[in-house]
Amino acid sequence: MAEGARGGNFLADIIEADLAAGRNGGRVVTRFPPEPNGFLHIGHAKSILLNFGLARTYGGEAHLRFDDTNPTAEDSAYVEAIQRDVRWLGCDWGDHLHFASDVFDRMYACAERLVRDGKAYVDSQPVEAIREGRGSFERPGTPSPFRERLPEENLALLERMRAGELPDGACVLRARIDMAHPNVLLRDPLLYRIRHARHHRTGDLWCIYPMYDFAHPLEDAFEGITHSICTLEFESNRELYDWVLDNTGPWDPRPRQYEFARLALGYTVLSKRKLLQLVAEKRVSGWDDPRMPTLAGLRRRGVTPEALREFADLIGVAKNNSVVDIGKLEFAVRGDLEKRAPRAMAVLRPLPLIVESWPEGREVELALPWWPGEPGRGTRAVPFGRELLVERDDFALEPPPGWKRLAPGREVRLAGAYVVRCVGVERGAAGEVTAVRCTHEAGSAGEGGPRGLGAVHWVHAHRSTAVTVRLYDRLFRVERPDAEEDFLQALDPESLTVIGGARVEPALAEAAAGSHWQFLRQGYFFADPEDSRPGAPVFNRTLALKDPWSAKAVARSASTAVLTTGIAPGGHARSSTAESAAWTTGRPLEPHAPSSAAVSAALSTAPTTEPVTKAAPSPRPESLARLTRYRDELELSASEAELLGADEELSRFFEAALPSYPHPKPLARWLANDLLGLAKGVPLASLPLGAPAFGKFVALVESGRVTAASAKVLLAALVQRGGDPEALMAELGLARQEDPAALLAAVERALSAHAREAERYRAGEVKLFGVLLGAVMREAQGAADAASARRALEERLR
């Protein structure tokens, strides 16, 4: 978690109880202990943010430690990559960078002590015999014939192992615990094995290496870790963890292990073996392929550390394993990019559009805002002329019901520019549409307009820039690829589409590598940091503007219609069979408009124009009435008025929420921008969150009692669980505490209840600060901002 624990986090409760009881001398020390044998993924990010966040919240320290006990699989390149990823997440370990290899000598001394105490012995059986002798859950183990070796003989053999006199597999060091123990892990587990391999840090200094279950608790003890937080698969290992510490101590502080549910994310595999297989078999382009769940891949896709921190807060910390809906990650990413990505226009599959009524040779520069509705954040010049390019999917000869884009006889607005009417098309030799001819309405330049028209994006045909665009999607086509007999069969062949002939407005020609953009109506994009060059950016799609997966099921079920009619579900025209094949297999598309010269040549040939007289159907009276009311009476934005006016279900929900919060603008904004995304295509009437409760939620947010980030967490919880927004806010500890007097009162109550600790802190026991801060957070009942509470407490203790 980004800032530690919110209310209800059982790990935070444990730490606060320890601080209140004065355990560990008031210290909180956590650690993130990766093995340097691979790249970090999003599951590791959850652990990193949790460990570093808890330490930060409670005034403690977090260590970065490399468990480098397996020289055959580890490499310094992984060490560097892991450090880079942890820093990228915003976590700082300060002086606390540790390696298991730094304390190999201390571990070996602990092993010698166990041997001398008769608690460990050297076993000369083959590995297969040892494995068989451990038994199973149904039958006890069989003691090794070497279990009763005397300590002196075991020490001599251990020294020979250490000196390199014995080959790999000749023998191992085992703990002497209980061969009939119900926990199979405690049936004389292995502590050391021989491995003649060069270590990436110690070279050939060692030829025996500790097993993880022996090294891990000792490293925690050596570093003074107080709370050793692991994932649930290590729950059975906890007894062995405690046995090692109990028989090699005493330790102060005595580390304790706690387990939480690891991240299992839908449409993803996080197994290191499976990720390696994807890379080795070239199913992806590498560890940083933007479809990979690695931090390197997410970074290259354009996901920010702030989005991952928000995601970690959103999913929380649980005790039971479950699969997290990937929509929650996408929700957090969209929310983050919405605030940081300026808007621009890009046409991915260009179709020429000729504005016949525009004078030939005349061009104007339109000043369009980077952030619509916020002109104070800057504008850019977008050239407009007679010859433009629009999205091929934005035109249909025979549009389906509800179509609001280009079609014969219909009007649309060119985003930020003029209203145009389609008056004709041009056809190629095979009868395909090669250009659309329109007229424009003078004096209609700008946004909005009286008719509630649909808007399409566009670029200038000659002054736009050709770029490469990569459309990334989920790597797997099923939610649980691990459940498949062969997870590779679940790979989605449509997870990457490369478009080589996309066109962007001139301002994007010099887009800096690593910059974020929202392509109008297309999605969020990221200028690839590796492949972009000055003047030639390559754009990776981070996410579509809205979740397309609910529509994909419909699209796939209607694939036959695409093949027979050339019209995709929703009325999107496909240009050709060859293009359709390229679109679905991930092969690069041939550019529709490879250069300005090619566009000019195509336009100058002037194929026969087919006049169009067919008029567009009028909207239904009830829809028009709603649109008029929402736009003129309630003063909603054009897009929100159109959305609510055209959809009867949305309109009913909106109207039912108004009595709870009679301020239509924020209500419509939260409905359109957030609630619909969380609903994922489910009818709003079927959600646990009813319209009156939704109105109360918006009232709560607009009153300032919950932050914007916390509001999104609260709304997600309401969509899942329903209930009263205010009660759920209190239960989740999401209320904003802005009252300085209330915070100071909480500080005073905490200091009064812990007067002795406060006195000792002022006398120099600075480690007690965590105890006092935990008390303040409890007195504030989880409502105080941790940073504000820290500052208030520091001021009062001076």
Q: Radius of gyration, Cα only, in angstroms?
A: 32 Å
Approximately what portion of the residues adopt beta-strand conformation? Answer: 15-25%
Q: Tell me the total number of β-strands.
A: 30
Major β-sheet, in short?
A: 8 strands, mixed
**What is the chains' assembly state?**
single chain
The helicity comes to: 25-40%
> How many H/I helical runs?
27
Give the integer mean of the pLDDT values: 86
Structural class: alpha/beta
Indicate the low-confidence ranges by residue numbers. 1-8, 553-619
End-to-end gap: 30 Å
Structural shape: globular
How would you describe this structure to a colleague?
The chain is globular. It is α/β, with parallel strands linked by helices and 798 residues long. The strands form eight sheets. Strands 14, 17, 18, 19, 20, 21, 22 and 30 form an eight-stranded mixed sheet that branches. It is built from 27 helices and 30 strands. 37% of the residues lie in helices and 17% in strands. The longest helix has 16 residues, at 42-57.
